[in-house]
Amino acid sequence: MSKLLTNKENNILALSGEGTMASTAAEFESVWSDLQGIEFSQGYLDAGGVRTRYLHAGDRSLPTLVLLHGSGGHAEAYVRNLAAHAEHFSTWSIDMLGHGYTDKPGHPLEVAHYVGHLMSFLDAVGAHRAHISGESLGGWVAARAAVDHPERIDRLVLNTAGGSQADPEVMKRIVTLSMAAAENPSWETVQARIKWLMADKSKDYDDIVASRQRVYRQPGFVSAMSDIMALQDPEIRARNLLGENDYGSIAAPTLVVWTSDDPTADVAEGRRIASMIPGARFEVMPGCGHWPQYEDPKTFNRLHLDFLLGRQ
Fold first, then answer.
1. 257 Rama class: left (phi>0) / alpha (psi -120 to 50) / beta
2. By the 8 A CB rule, do 265 and 144 touch?
3. 94 contacts 64 by C-beta, under 8 angstroms
4. What would the pLDDT profile of 264-289 be if each residue is shown by its tens digit?
5. For residues 192 and 194, what is the distance between their CA atoms, to the nearest angstrom?
6. Strand 153-159's sheet: what is its strand order?
7. Shortest CA distance to 140 belongs to which of 77, 198, 90, 70?
């Protein structure tokens, strides 16, 4: 684990001319530094009886935008996107049902459970309609919500979204990495789970690893992770997959974002999803893995905002 140097230590390095080490310290990635300068709140609200954790930024009178993370994730997946979006939207990044610090229902979680929780969350914040943007599992949930509740979705973003296929090797890898991290949340197991998401394997992602390690060390989280992994079971996954008719029924304007190095599916799969959604826009972000919103926030924020604001 990298050591974050104190100001005193940095000053000593600077005086001694050891600029490389000082530069490394200056480049330490921190969830807190991502949020500095943003007027934001962290809290909990009741969404249909589910105590739900959120990060929120932006005036609540602005249009609502909800950001949904992936399997085993939490609201911090979007810490690098809150500031840019808060200028235009009442922006919420939530811990989805059974994830993070949101209530764990104690049963295997299927897409309908997540969609129900999302609708209850919108009710709780007083949003009859909202823009929904989801990554991985979050994209799967967002797409299903657009199919089942078209009257509640303004614009839709599917970011390296799941739900279109069942690749046994990918499913096995997700279960192996996720359960190992939950059963033994050491620095190494949690870091392995995070690095799998990213294109750049040279970084340590210390602060995200530390945040997730704290989540996974909660009492009972092994059982919660097992419930989250239900969608990696072939039989359960099969009845939750979205097909051509589902995608074809999506009426909301849709942006599909894919990446050059996504570990779950190649660019062709992202393009196939977009081709099934009427009028969908498709964008590929190079040099990113499963978290383009984190790995290249500048590009992601530009593409995302251009679409959500109808600029392109």
1. beta
2. no
3. no
4. 999 999 999 999 999 999 999 999 99
5. 5
6. 40-47, 50-57, 90-94, 64-68, 130-135, 153-159, 254-259, 281-285
7. 70
**Six-digit token pair at 215?**
């989540």
For the stretch 109-158, pLDDT in tens is 999 999 999 999 999 999 999 999 999 999 999 999 999 999 999 999 99
Q: What is the pTM of this model?
A: 0.91
DSSP calls for the chain: ------HHHHHHHHHHT-HHHHHHHHT---HHHHHTT--EEEEEEEETTEEEEEEEES-TTSPEEEEE--TT--GGGGTTTHHHHHTTSEEEEE--TTSTTS---SS---HHHHHHHHHHHHHHTT-SSEEEEEETHHHHHHHHHHHH-GGGEEEEEEES--SS---HHHHHHHHHHHHHHHHS--HHHHHHHHHHH-S-TT---HHHHHHHHHHHTSTTHHHHHHHHGGGGSHHHHHHH---HHHHHT--S-EEEEEETT-SS--HHHHHHHHHHSTT-EEEEETT--S-HHHHSHHHHHHHHHHHHTT--
Contact 82, 35 (CB under 8 A): yes
Closest among 36, 83, 81, 29 to 206, alpha carbons compared: 29
Structure tokens at 285: 């972000």
